[in-house]
Amino acid sequence: MWIDAHCHLGWFSDPAAVAREAAEKGLGLLAVTVTPGEFRALRAAFGGEKNVALAAGLHPWWVRDASDADALCELLPGVRWVGEVGLDAAPRHAATWEAQLDAFERICRACAETSPPEAPKVLSVHAVRSAGAALDVLERTGAAESCRCVLHWFSGSSDELWRGVRLGCLFSLGERALATRRGREYARVLPEERLLTETDLPPFEGSAGGAADIVASLGLSVDAMSSARGMDPRELSALIAANGAALGASRES
């Protein structure tokens, strides 16, 4: 099975059809959302698809005030998959930094408090120019210990990468990350049990693409990652599929 550990399924023009196509192609999807409202709408549309793990999220670009975090925290006791959540310190989002930080801290604390050992919550974390701050929050709130945290499109420093490894984080890398020298080096050195593939597709809401686009992007990622690691692509695909399956397992299994 191919694994896409971070996609915006709800941004396709026909999400339910893409989910069905993905199942036919043997694709396992972690479908993130950017607001609690998007999560609720998608859960009603295709919550029963066995190949789709639908995550409840609050993307940092959509954070404005405390009410945004309130809406997500209300959902967290009843969901296992959480994302896209995190921090973005790019200049264009500077005005909301304090609100982002407060929201992410509250979300991570709520996740840690409601993450049972038999089925730990899985978080897909956005950390643009903020890897250190995001790791601080994951560690301080206990989310790094009690949840499974996946750092999406990680672009932090080498020291931050290894801090994430020590905290138990996984790393989802896509074709755009792997097009950079840093991304390929991180793919080369990361422990094999921490590697996941992702697409971050589609690029915008209402996109007309489908599961074939996801497969094509994942194929490019596997090729780049296997080249960086000196591995056979089929062996790497099997390894990543096992890592993806392990996200859904209990810590005791």
UniProtKB/TrEMBL annotation:
Chain sites annotated for binding a divalent metal cation 2: 126, 152
Transmembrane segments: none
SUPFAM superfamilies according to UniProt: Metallo-dependent hydrolases
Name of protein: TatD family hydrolase
Residues that coordinate or bind a divalent metal cation 1: 6, 8, 84, 200
Pfam families for this protein: TatD_DNase
Gene3D superfamilies in alphabetical order: Metal-dependent hydrolases
Keyword Hydrolase: yes
Gene Ontology molecular function: any one: metal ion binding
